[in-house]
């Protein structure tokens, strides 16, 4: 599923037998639905891979394609068309879910380009210690001590107001850091979208480490929120 | 369209079920033989035929409900709560209901409920209700109905959805789509008004609670998030009132009514009546005659009732907040809130909704324009019309729903690796790769679960798969690609392929809960021929049978004490109606027979009420069925609706 499209491969339409390009959802000749195409998520929306997307346009395309592809439109069609409608719509939904979310979209493009990244959304590698950003190592250690202290005192039934406000401040600081990471990411999107191949490679490296940093800070914020809230 | 017949929309509810269709550009509910839109989701096993020849027949709806007091051991209701559930869940569920499990149910089997001398799985019971709705529709159209859209609570899991689909198949219906109830309600509302914006549907029914947040735009209904509780509804409120009454009767009168299932059912009816009255009145009275002739009298002020049910209602707040958070919106961003389900008639529920969505401050009210009991069925009819295609009204409409629960795979250490997140638009898919851990290994076992918890043991087990026939290779070398796909009904499909050898890996799907294909096949209710000619004949025969049944019931009722309470003009009206029916019933005019039957039915409504009152009283006095009079018993279990619905 992650292979990059090769639009040169011609395929025959099952219905009218006219050859078409492999990445199409409908036969350009007879408009019949086709089996799931082999392209990436961007090609589902007839886009080349890029990071700065117009989400309004993406939603519009999503609705337009849904109207044509959805299984509700094929409730009384042939078994094959039903199956393809199901598979194509699943592909469309998976693609839309990935591309409309800025972080998932970035992760996806980086993976397409062969980068090794953790998966924030799959619930895996949540606390991979090898990915701790060096500049945060010491602070994170202190924070974890504070969190442990907070949990203990909560268990005892009393809360130290100083500790509480310290943690709240820390949460605010890390949230600000997240905002910074996000704006750094967006800057790299521009570099990637507009750059040549060496510039893209450079931007990819930066984005991989920004995503690692983001994931790590996110986990810290979540831990603080859980501890404060419980 | 004509060739393939109509597609109907069915609301298979915990308390009531309905069937609806699109009449032109408007969805309408199809009434049953008794003229009522609601078919109570109650199934009764008729008395065993004395000739010993055949299986006993089954009665559904109002007439089945009337047998609850007399023969509670032959009646089942609220079966939706048992759909797709395992043995232990059903056991804990049954604490609140008078049904019991069959003695020979084994772990891992679909539980069967003992009904009289027979045993039924929950999908079979539901199939009887669906068959009744199918017949009502066929009777109404005068032509066969074989395709349907059925609604399910949005928060139903895979097994509960599959069980509902199985029930459809057993009833002889091809289920074109399962639609989530709140989404269906949104469709019914969205048809009326060409709305754009964000709407929330709050659906508190008899047994389940759902909340869905939808975005409406250009005729597309895109669900943003859904949440709920499949164990929360009006039943819980009834049980609270019932428990209090039972305890008070025990302490004040020294009678443990729990030993009298029939009396408990009569008391439950009083509790439901009181609950309904408290939605419009500041007080409701319990006035209940006990087996020893004493009366249990109790006044319930609305404030006391509201305090009592507050914990139940508050359980809906958490899911609402989670749904808002998952949709990424604040309560203020929700433009409209739609109320669905009979329990939303309770004023305290409306106040809670106004609070949750900050409606009052914004000068808004929740929407209640469409009958909360019917709106889901109406929406199902709209979806049926969308699926049938070729309708101008619905051609621009499309429903994009989501999966309510995350799908995951059990990983090492019993943790869950989520592969499809909750609230993903369906159909949705995920592709995972598996390999072997030992040289030459040819099988890989996969455990699929549904739920949000971190440990597989805390999630709902969906199925275990065995990937078989992997070519023997060095450990870690095989690369098996498994594709998980949640279809538009919210049901999981799985396929697998070994990539290095190119071999299609065999999968043996063993659902943790549910019936096998063969079992469903063997439970199909009747496989009669649906050919048009036969069908017309069948309708005529059924109409004549209905006519005969009601005529003989009226004849029997003449000896009932209730007959003596009728006024002279009531008796002559009954006689005129039955005279007319007797004269048309052997003719070929289907509609004439039906109209005449309905006329007799109408003329006997008060008679039926009087007989019902008499029956309840004698059941409560603790008489045995024999003492209560055989003729009475027979009349009450008669498979014909001679009484109007008792709870409106």
What does this structure look like?
The complex is a heterodimer of chains A (about 230) and B (about 650). Chain A is an all-alpha fold and about 230 residues long. Chain A folds into two domains: about 10-100, Orthogonal Bundle (Helix Hairpins), CATH 1.10.287; about 130-230. In chain A, about 60% of the residues lie in helices and about 5% in strands. In chain A, helix 4 (about 100-110) crosses helix 7 (about 195-230). The longest helix of chain A is centred in the C-terminal third of the chain and has 34 residues, at about 160-195. The relative contact order of chain A is 0.10. Chain B is an alpha+beta fold and about 650 residues long. Chain B folds into four domains: about 5-190 and about 375-400, Nucleotidyltransferase, domain 5; about 235-310, ATPase, substrate binding domain, subdomain 4 (Actin, Chain A, domain 4, Alpha-Beta Complex); about 405-510, Substrate Binding Domain Of DNAk, Chain A, domain 1, CATH 2.60.34.10; about 530-635, Substrate Binding Domain Of Dnak, Chain:A, Domain 2. Chain B contains 18 helices and 27 strands. In chain B, the strands form seven sheets. In chain B, strands 1, 2, 3, 4, 11 and 12 form a six-stranded mixed beta sheet that branches. Chain B has a five-stranded mixed beta sheet with strand order 18-13-14-15-19. A five-stranded antiparallel beta sheet of chain B has the order 21-20-23-24-27, with no helix packed on it. In chain B, strand 11 (about 145-150), helix 4 (about 160-170) and strand 12 form a beta-alpha-beta unit. The two termini of chain B are about 35 Å apart. The model of chain B is unreliable at about 620-648 (pLDDT under 50). Chains A and B meet through helix 2 and helix 3 of A and helix 11, strand 19, strand 21 and strand 22 of B.
């Amino acid at each position: 599923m992650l292979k990059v499209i090769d639009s040169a491969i011609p395929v025959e339409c099952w219905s009218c037998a006219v050859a078409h390009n492999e990445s199409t959802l409908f036969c350009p000749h007879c408009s019949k639905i086709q089996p799931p195409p082999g392209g990436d998520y961007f090609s589902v929306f007839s886009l080349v891979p890029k990071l700065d997307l117009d989400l309004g346009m993406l939603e519009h395309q999503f609705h337009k394609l849904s109207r044509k592809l959805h299984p509700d439109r094929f409730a009384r069609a042939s078994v094959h068309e039903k199956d393809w409608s199901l598979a194509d719509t699943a592909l469309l939904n998976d693609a839309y879910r990935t591309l409309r979310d800025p972080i998932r979209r970035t992760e996806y493009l980086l993976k397409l380009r062969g980068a090794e990244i953790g998966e924030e959304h799959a619930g895996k590698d949540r606390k991979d210690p090898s990915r701790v950003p060096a500049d945060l190592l010491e602070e994170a250690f202190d924070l974890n001590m504070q969190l442990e202290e907070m949990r203990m005192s909560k268990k005892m039934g009393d809360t130290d107001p100083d500790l509480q406000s310290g943690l709240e401040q820390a949460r605010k600081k890390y949230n600000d850091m997240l905002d910074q990471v996000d704006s750094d990411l967006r800057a790299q999107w521009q570099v990637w979208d507009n750059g040549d191949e060496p510039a893209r490679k450079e931007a990819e490296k930066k984005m991989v480490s920004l995503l690692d940093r983001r994931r790590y800070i996110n986990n810290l914020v979540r831990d603080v929120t859980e501890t404060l809230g419980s | 369209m004509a060739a393939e017949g109509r597609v109907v929309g069915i609301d298979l509810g915990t308390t009531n079920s309905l069937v609806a269709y699109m009449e032109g550009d408007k969805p309408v509910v199809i009434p049953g033989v008794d003229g009522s839109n609601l078919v109570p989701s109650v199934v009764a096993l008729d008395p065993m035929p004395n000739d010993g020849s055949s299986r006993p027949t089954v009665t559904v709806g109002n007439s089945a409900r009337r047998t609850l007091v007399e023969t509670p051991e032959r009646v089942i209701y609220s079966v939706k709560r048992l759909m797709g559930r395992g043995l232990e869940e059903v056991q804990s569920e049954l604490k609140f209901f008078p049904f019991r499990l069959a003695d020979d149910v084994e772990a891992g089997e679909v539980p069967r409920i003992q009904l009289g001398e027979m045993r039924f799985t929950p999908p079979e019971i539901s199939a009887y209700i669906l068959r009744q709705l199918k017949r009502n529709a066929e009777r109404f159209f005068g032509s066969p109905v074989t395709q349907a859209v059925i609604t399910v609570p949005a928060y139903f899991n895979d097994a509960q959805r599959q069980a509902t689909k199985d029930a459809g198949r057993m009833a002889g219906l091809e289920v074109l789509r399962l639609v989530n109830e709140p989404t269906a309600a949104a469709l019914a509302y969205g048809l009326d008004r060409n709305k754009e914006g964000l709407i929330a549907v709050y659906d508190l029914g008899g047994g389940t609670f759902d909340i869905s947040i939808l975005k409406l735009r250009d005729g597309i209904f895109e669900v943003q998030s859904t949440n709920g509780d499949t164990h929360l509804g009006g039943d819980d409120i009834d049980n609270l009132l019932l428990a209090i009454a039972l305890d008070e009767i025990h302490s004040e009168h020294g009678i443990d009514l729990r030993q009298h299932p029939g009396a408990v059912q009569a008391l439950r009816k009083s509790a439901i009546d009181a609950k309904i009255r408290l939605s419009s009145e500041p007080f409701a009275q319990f006035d209940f005659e006990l087996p020893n002739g004493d009366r249990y009298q109790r006044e319930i002020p609305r404030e006391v009732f509201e305090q009592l049910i507050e914990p139940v209602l508050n359980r809906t707040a958490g899911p609402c907040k989670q749904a808002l958070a998952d949709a990424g919106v604040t309560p203020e961003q929700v433009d409209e809130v739609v109320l669905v389900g009979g329990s939303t008639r309770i004023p305290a529920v409306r106040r809670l909704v106004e609070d949750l969505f900050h409606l009052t401050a914004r000068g808004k009210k929740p929407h209640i324009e469409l009958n909360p009991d019917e709106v889901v069925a109406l929406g199902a009819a709209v979806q049926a019309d969308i699926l049938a295609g070729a309708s101008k009204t619905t051609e621009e409409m499309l429903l994009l729903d989501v999966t309510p629960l995350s799908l995951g795979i059990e990983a090492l250490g019993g943790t869950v690796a989520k592969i499809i997140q909750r609230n993903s638009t369906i159909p949705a898919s995920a592709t995972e790769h598996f390999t072997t851990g030992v040289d030459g290994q040819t099988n890989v076992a996969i455990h699929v679960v549904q739920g949000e918890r971190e440990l597989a043991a805390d999630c709902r087990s969906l199925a275990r798969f065995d990937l078989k026939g992997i070519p023997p290779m060095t450990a870690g070398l095989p690369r098996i690609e498994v594709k998980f796909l949640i279809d538009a009904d919210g049901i999981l499909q799985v396929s697998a392929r070994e990539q290095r050898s190119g071999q299609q890996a065999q999968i043996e799907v063993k659902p943790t809960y549910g019936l096998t294909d063969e079992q469903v096949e063997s439970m199909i209710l009747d496989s009669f021929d649906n050919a048009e000619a036969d069908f017309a004949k069948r309708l005529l025969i059924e109409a004549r049978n209905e006519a005969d049944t009601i005529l003989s019931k009226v004849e029997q009722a003449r000896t009932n004490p209730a007959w003596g309470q009728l006024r002279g003009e009531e008796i002559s009206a009954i006689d005129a109606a039955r005279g007319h029916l007797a004269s048309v019933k052997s003719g070929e005019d289907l509609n004439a027979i039906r109209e005449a039957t309905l006329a007799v039915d109408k003329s006997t409504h008060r008679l039926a009420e009087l007989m019902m009152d008499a029956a309840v009283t004698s059941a409560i006095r603790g008489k045995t069925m024999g003492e209560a009079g055989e003729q009475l018993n027979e009349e009450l279990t008669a498979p014909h609706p001679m009484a109007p619905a008792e709870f409106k």
